Structure formats: structure tokens, C-alpha cells
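ok trying again, last paste got cut off:
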Amino acid sequence: MAGEQSQDKTEQPTGKKLADARQKGNVAQSREIPSVLILSGGVGVLFFAGSWMFGRLTDMMRVIYQRAGTLSMASETMHTLFWEVFLNCLVVLIPLMLVVMTAGVVGNVAQFGFLITGEKLTPNLAKLNPISGLKKLVSLRSLVELAKSIIKLVIISGIAYIVIHRYLDQIPGLMQLSVGNILRFIGQLSFQLCLYTCMVLFLMAVLDFAYTKWQHQQDLKMTKQEVKDEYKQREGDPSIKARIRAVQREMARRRMMEAVPEATVVITNPTHLAVALKYEEGMHAPTVVAKGAGFVAQKIRSIAIENDIPVVENKPLARTIFKSTQIGDFIPADLYRAIAEILAYVYRLKGLVNA
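nice, full thing came through this time. structure:
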């Protein structure tokens, strides 16, 4: 059943799906990128400030040994000594700690941006289910993580072997060197080992991030039904929206019909189209108060006849006004002459009726 469900998820995640996942802290995150940045930052600090750090610690130890014969075991004296040692170690470690913390933050922000969420901190009893834990142990993701760990171990071991093998013939001669030269040799060897390791791990981190992002997209894929449900939730049920539009059209049609008795003239096609115009003294131009085709045109015509509104048949004019105007629009200027003739006819007609 689980296999069938995963096969049904063929649609790419929508923007809302990605946003909801991000809000819950579910983002594409590779642990390798912060790790390699932290390691690189630490190596950089040791390379540029290693001599200063070593010298500071050496001076501190020298002072302690010089004062060893005169130190009192009183609590105040020991408290002062430990406080000085603590402050010196803190000063030495502050650059390293700042670089490591910055590298860790940058490594995560570079992947998914700045994100603060407490969703991951919320207790989840489902995570304590032993059956789910066993499933995770034998899942594809756990096997991939195991393979990555083995590959990293093999690569780092290979780099260590290659680097140490280059200096293997120099190791016996270390016995004839001073302690400072021995430490310098070890430091150079360790720096090369860390440098080559960082270069290889950086390449692996880029590949791991690409895989993690692809896996994240796969995990968030949706079924066609989920996409439809989300669209309905966001845009509303299409059937309901269609019903609302139908009601709105009916209300607009009703308001239009209520405006027909106020029209000055109705121009028809004669039965297929009908356009009701209103013109009063002081208006810029005649206004379209109603128009329609088919049944609506017949309804406009019948209302006009019931309310003694003149109905004038003019097929070209009715067709032109119907296509070029909307309800509430003024008549186009190029139709003023034709409309003026019809209005003159209507006024003469009304004058004969009143007489």
C-alpha cells in the first residue's frame, strides 16, 4: 500500500506545500556543508593564528612553572591562579570559537536561508515508536547515510595514508630534533592532512546537498488529488464559484431590466438584439442602460412596450452599439449622428402622442 501511495505522488510540490514544509522546519539540509565549513574555519584559524595561540599558551605555562616554587596553597592564591589560566585559555580560544560558530550558521543559512521555527522542538510521541525506529534503520535513507559515512572514512583514510607516506622517511630523524621542531613538523603534517581533507569533503558536501535537495523534492511530491484539494482550498470549490457567478449575473440582469423603464428608446435587430438608451437634458451623450441578445433582447423589448418606451428597428445600429459598448457606457462619437436622428424621431413621436 505504501508503495502504491508513493507511486501516485507524481506531481511536483506546489508553492504552498513548500511554504508549509518550511514553516515546520522541513527543509533541504545537508549536514556535510556546515561540517566542512567548520573544519575549514578551524584549519584557517590555526594556520593564521596558530603561532600566536601557541606562543600565548607557552608564555602562560612558563609563568606558571616560574612561580611554582613560590605559590601558596591558600584558597585565594589558587583561585587567582585558576582565574588567570581560564582568562588566558578563553582569549586563545575566542577566535576559534567565533569562526566555528560563524561557519556553522553560514553553512545552514546558505542552504535554506534564515529560518527560526520551534516545530522541531515540539515533543512528538510518535518518534518513540520502536517499530518506526526499526523501519528507519532499514530504510533507503539510512542506507545512503551509511554509504556516505563509509565513503568519507575511506577517503579520509586514503588521504592520511598518502600524506603520511610522503613524510615516512623523515619520521625516524625526528628523534634527533628538538621538541619545538618536532611540534612544527607535526603541525605542518596535520595542516596538510586537514587541508586536503577539507578540499575533498567540500566536493562531497556539494554533491550531498544536491542529493538532499532532490530527496526533499521527492518527499514533498503530491498526488493529483492533493493538488486538486489544495487548489479548491486556496481558490474555492469551482462548482460553488460557478454558482456565485451565476447568481451575480442574474442580479446584474435583474438590475438591468429594472433600468429599462427609464430608457428613452430601445433599438432592436429586430428580435435577436436589443439596446436600451437613455438621454436627458444636460447629459454628455446617450447612455446604454440595458442590452441583450436572444431571450434577454425579447425581455427588454417586452418591458419597453409595457412602459410605452419607443422601440426602433435598426439592424446595423443595434449590432454596432451591442458590440462596441457595455452597460453604463456613453455612445461612441461616430454614432452621434445616427442616434440624433433616432432621438429626433422619438421626440416627434412623443409630441404626436401628447397632441
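cool. The chain has twelve helices and four strands. The first helix runs from residue 2 to 8.
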